[in-house]
Amino acid sequence: MKLKTFTPLIFGVSLGLLSLTLWYGLLASFVLPKMYRPLHHWMYGVAMIALGAWRHRKNYGRFSMAMGAILLWDDFHDLIQTLSITLAF
User: Per-residue pLDDT tens for 16-49?
Assistant: First the structure.
């Protein structure tokens, strides 16, 4: 197997580890605990859509855009609800 086959997988795993480190490690003191999950998924979803738009002619580019959109849609309600609760205080 060529390295080209594993490049999307390596990129996805490294992006996931980077976002986990960023949200749970560095920004834990600035972000409310209720907002960790929606914001983490939104950051990951936006990054996947950006990767997919960059590599839209490849199969993994279209797959990345679809997965990013699913992540954004899945946590949209959670993010709106969390922001409305946060802004109410």
Answer: 777 777 766 676 667 666 666 677 777 777 777 8
Distance in Å from the first CA to the final CA of the chain: 54
The C-alpha atoms of residue 36 and residue 86 are separated, in whole angstroms, by: 13
d(CA 85, CA 87): 6
* Crossing angle between the packed helical segments 3-20 and 36-54, to the nearest 10 degrees: 150
Using alpha carbons, list the distances in angstroms from residue 53 to 22, 66, 78, 81, 85: 23, 10, 25, 29, 33
∠ CA(57), CA(38), CA(53), 5° rounding? 10
